[in-house]
């Protein structure tokens, strides 16, 4: 079987289709002053590493939300607290209006979790894994079988329903974890690096499925290192660093903060130190011997830059875009912090 699936909206173009769901005024997630201090080596919690430093965040129902940050920023700790896998040190969290401290089981029933690491039972079949997960939520066999069938078909796994999970490809395992997380029809789906290690074609197929899921009303909270992924899928973004939210807003509003364009210039020959000295007052950075990074401010053009470089003997063979515009915002904020 080919490792693909056909999206339900087969005829619809998905490129550059950022958020497509309907956002409600009601919060799906509301956290205030959330703290987590991990115990130090001597076991004293108060003296350990503070992974979350009073994080407050609201995600509205129907939102497709990205939580971004470098490694160790606190993303996985936050996801762990919301899914009940990590015990918080302080603060409050509500899921769909239900306090996680007062009614933990009810609050967790609203959540579906797709963790970053594979945690499947390797000797169960795809169908068994999804059906067994439903048992934790009291879903009857009568109801779960048609639901499991539909999920596995939507995710391109139906023909693998009787195969043990250990025999599946990495991309299929990722999709199986999504099916398992959705079997109880959660209102909020937590995705922790869902496309890590997945090839480009499969990643875009997963994007299409997640867009459809969000359009049907499911709130999705995504952590990812692929900034293009957040830019393509999400409307709202929060950037976390060292346990604190340093920026939050719509993708559109964050992108308006970019007052320059970054380009990569491939040169026809290695750029010498003498040539870089002549260009020291120009917004150029040497990436390697034959690659320059150029930041164009408003009013500057590529042609002006090529003439400037040519004047000192640097000839350009190719010009490339650096990729995600959101990445520019992310890097600038992290560096300032």
Question: What is the gist of this entry?
Answer:
With 337 residues, this protein is an alpha/beta fold.
If you average the pLDDT, what whole number results? 85
CATH class of the largest domain: Alpha Beta
What fraction of the residues are assigned to beta strands by DSSP?
Answer: 25-35%
CATH-assigned fold name of the largest domain: Rossmann fold
Question: Could you name the CATH homologous superfamily of the largest domain?
Answer: P-loop containing nucleotide triphosphate hydrolases
Q: What general form does the structure show?
A: globular
Pairing-aware structural class of the strands and helices? Answer: alpha/beta
> How many distinct folded domains?
2
Number of beta strands: 14
CA-to-CA gap between the ends?
48 Å
The gyration radius over C-alpha positions equals 23 Å
In the CATH classification, which architecture of the largest domain applies?
Answer: 3-Layer(aba) Sandwich
Strand order of the largest sheet: 6-7-8-3-9-10
- Roughly what percent helix? 25-40%
Explain what the structure shows.
This protein has helices at 75-82, 104-109, 126-135, 141-154, 170-182, 200-215, 227-233, 251-255, 273-278, 302-311, 325-336, and strands at residues 27-38, 49-60, 64-68, 90-95, 98-99, 111-114, 188-192, 219-223, 236-241, 244-250, 261-267, 284-288, 291-296, 316-321. It is an alpha/beta fold and 337 residues long. The chain has 2 domains: 27-255, Rossmann fold (3-Layer(aba) Sandwich); 261-324, Alpha-Beta Plaits (2-Layer Sandwich). The strands form 3 sheets. Strands 6-7-8-3-9-10 form a 6-stranded mixed β-sheet, sandwiched between helices. Helix 3 (126-135) packs parallel to helix 5. The longest helix is centred in the middle third of the chain and has 16 residues, at 200-215. The protein is globular.
